[in-house]
Every structure is written in C-alpha cells, then in structure tokens.
Write a structure and sequence with these properties.
Layout (H helix, E strand, L loop, with lengths): L1 H16 L14 H8 L13 E2 L5 E2 L1 E12 L8 E13 L16 E3 L1 H5 L6 E3 L2 E6 L7 E5 L4 E13 L11 E10 L7 E5 L5 E3 L8 E15 L11 E14 L2 H18 L10 H23 L10 H27 L5 E3 L4 H9 L7 H11 L26 E2 L5 H10 L31 E4 L1 H33 L1
Parallel strand pairs: 3-11, 3-12
Antiparallel strand pairs: 1-2, 3-4, 4-9, 5-8, 6-10, 7-9, 8-9, 10-14, 13-14, 15-17, 16-17
Helix pairs in contact: 4-5, 4-6, 5-6, 6-10, 8-9
Length: 497
Amino acid sequence: MRKLIVLLVFVCCTNCAEPDCPTLLDADNLSQTQLLERLTHGCRYDRLERPITYSESGNRLPVDVYVRWYVYFMQNLEAHDLQFKIHALLQLRFLDPRLTFRKVAPKRKQPILGEKPLRDNLWVPHIFLANERDSSIMGTNEKDILTSISPDGTVIISSRIKATLYCWMNLQKFPFDEQHCSTYLESWMYNTSELILHWEQKRPITFDPDLHLTEYILQQAWSNETVINADLNDLRHGAFAGNYSSLGFTVHFTREVGFYIMDYFLPSMLIVGISWVSFWLQADQAPPRIMLGTSTMLTFITLASAQGKTLPKVSYIKVSEVWFLGCTLFIFGSLLEFAFVNTIWRRKQNVDVKSMSSRHILKSTLSPRLSRRKARSRSFSTGTLGTDSISLTGAPKFNNYLTVHNFPITTINENETEMDNVSKVTSFTTAPNSQKMDVGLLEDGNSSNGNNGESKNGWTTLTPQQISQWIDAKARVLFPMSFLVFNAFFWTFVYIF
C-alpha cells in the first residue's frame, strides 16, 4: 500500500512539471514579446519545420520565397583576382500560416518587429551566394538583421551583408572591355518540391543613386530565375541530388579608358615618335643614334611592364598587348634601320644603279654589282675630280656633318664612246663652296645628272653615303605613314568590332 501511494505521487508530480500549452485568448492585451512567445511555443510551432500549405486538391505546396536586392556600395572589379566586392541589403519575404495573429488579436494592426533574437525563434529559408568567395553580415548581428511578422503571417527578413564575389572577366579587349558580372542566390537544403525562389515583381534589384565607380560605368542590370540540377558530383547543396531553385542578376560594366589613354597610349605614341629622330642624324653618328634607340626601347618596355602587373596571366592575347607589341616593333625597326644605313655608309665601293627608282636603288644596294664600264668610269673620275673631293685612295671624302658636298653623278650609256665619257667628266667643275645635297635628286622619277633625259639603258653611280642619306630620307616618311596605318586598324578594331 505504501509503495502504491509513492507511485501515485510521482505520477502526479510529473504531470504537474509539464506545462500546459499557453492560450491565445485575449491576445490583444498581451505585449509583443508575450504574443510572440505564445505563437512560437513548442506546442504550436517547430522552427525546424518549414511552413506547410496545401492546395485545393490537398497536395502539399512548396514555400514561395520572394527576394529583393538593394545595392548601396560596389567596389571596382579587381582584374588580377577576377572578383568584386559588394555591400547590399538582402530581403526575404514568405508566408508562414503558423504565425498568423489577425484572428486572435484583431485590434493589433501593426506588425511585430525585432532583430536577431526574433529571427532565431523562426524558421528561415537557407539562401546562399553560389559564386561567393567570402560573405558576412555587416555590423553587429544584433542590429543589422531586421525581422517583421505581419498579422496575416507574412515574414520579412532583411540583412545587410557584404560579399566578395567571383566575376569571370574576359580581358581580350582590355582596356576597352565590357564586363558582365553575375550574382547567384540558391536554396541550400530545400529543393524545388519544398521551396521556390522568386524575384519581387516591383523593382527586384535597385542601386543606390549615389553609387559611383572610379574605373567603370554601371550601364544596366537584369535578373533571371532558373533551376539548378544537382547530382552527387555537385556538393554545393550538401550532396543531396535534385533540382534547386536559383536566382541570378547580372550587372553590365564598361571600363573608363581616360586613365589608360593619358598614362599609356599617348606616352607610347610619343616614345615611338622620339625614336624617329635618329633618321635626321647622319648615318655615321653611331653614339647618339644608338643611345636614342636603346633609351626609347627601355623606356617603352618599362611602361608596358607597369601596365601588365595589374592584370592576370591569361592565355589569350589582349588588345593592350597588341598595341605594345606593335609599338615595340616600330622602335626596334628604327634600330634596324640605323644598323642598315651605318653598314652601307662604311662601304668602300660605289654602287651602279640602272634607274633612279626605289626598287632599283634598294636592289643595287642589297646586291651591289659592277657595271660593264664601272672600271672605266672610276679611272676617269679619279683623274679629273679635284683634290678637295677625292682622297688618296680614290674614294670621295665626306665631312661628319649633316651638310654633304654635291658630288658628280656619272652616267654611262651603251652607245657612248669612251672619249664622250671623258669629256663629260672633265667638263664638270665643282662649286667653290660645298653645297647641301638635294635629296630630291634621288626621288623616284625626278633624277637628273646634268641632262633632262636619261637613256633607257643608262646607269647611275651612287656613293654609299648618298644611298645612306636616301634611305634615311625615305624612312622619315615611311615610318610615320606605317604607324598611322597601324593606328587606323587598331582603333577601328577597338571601337567597331
């Protein structure tokens, strides 16, 4: 009997220790905290269970979560890391019928507002950024999460977050490129049979009016809703296979090119132009021409390498690399031109040219050959030229100035006799004062050597110094014109294609 009494007392005490489910009667007189505690009591609410709704046919419906994204800060794209930083307000809205208090508290018209403690008592959809590198809640967790429960059970959760997101940029047209950077939000543990994400109908993505970027211009943004099919090879969703709802929005950026024009393109044009100054120096002035060519080359390499340090090491060729490579070839070409004319200047033998055209001059210069009467003309020239123009070895003397004596050009025709050539050479008299050589005498189609017409089979003898100066004169025009053509093709490709 005694044992039976002890057992009855134990059972009664156990029943007394279990609290009863709190009532929702007279909810209008309850405080906001009291009403929330009763609504989320364990007998009515399970925060591990998603809201359950049914269709008219009795089928269980997934939870519709509506998302809004407000961007108030965005950092410039970091090309070397292929990422960008963003500060935004993420707002989630969904309906939870278990939190409806319109009927139990009809006089309460205002929603229940709270911060992180309120959110911790509720079921919240787990949404993550699929292309994030890092993300966190801004400020303190207590203040930067706003939770609102409306009388009809609509829950709105707003969080201020900062995230570092990947952006797979295409830099083929750098620095004239346009980038499209996307942000993807996906459901973590609930597939499409349990949860579906939607963008808000009105202004789902908005940007702060004071948002400005220093290197880019924000052109436009657009959003989309998709479904991600996950299998066992995709562990983003906890290794659970299925279809998961996904939201994405893409931002279109165009790069500001003013900095690159002023700091890279214009200086590189000037450096290429400076390398052409060597064409106005005489071919035997090796020290200044070598110094000018090497200094411009080293300066340009330094400029190009400084620009390339801010870019990732991609496998494809960028537009900026095409520009720098083209400019490097022009500077290198001026160095090769000096080496070529300097080699010709130091030759000992004159060159016979069949015609005073560029093709014949270059052909005779690259492969010099003796004409049939070259030996005779050389003997005639040696015996008749003055001592001021002929050295002891028989070759004309030249000063190391930009001013050059006007030496005779001997023309040998097939039908002329030897005495006619001797009379031509002996009748030539040099001026008392040396004059500058007229480069126009060597232009195509305008050459003359004392007579207006040159016979069809005539040959003209040019000294190595005259050929060197003729090549420099041609380079002064050929290099700038070629650079203009290169610029025309380059800028046409940049802004049209």
